Amino acid sequence: MVTPVRVVIALCLVAPFVALLWVGSYAKTDPAFIGIPFFYWYQMLWVVVSAVLTMVAHQLWQRDQRARTGSGKGGGSR
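Structure for DUF3311 domain-containing protein, as requested:
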């Protein structure tokens, strides 16, 4: 079943793939950050952003599962 929460979860998980597979958007050297070309620091920034988005997606998924099982009794983390 597609719900708004599941759409947000999907966007959180797909965004890093789209951002990093679209190489033409970041295949350049400027702007440099502390001497590091844009190409490298952009990818390293996405490591952190991806971790945060995955954490958000996980929290939303758990909340959605608790809401589906009622008040969260007897379920589990699945």
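The chain is about 65% helix and 0% strand.
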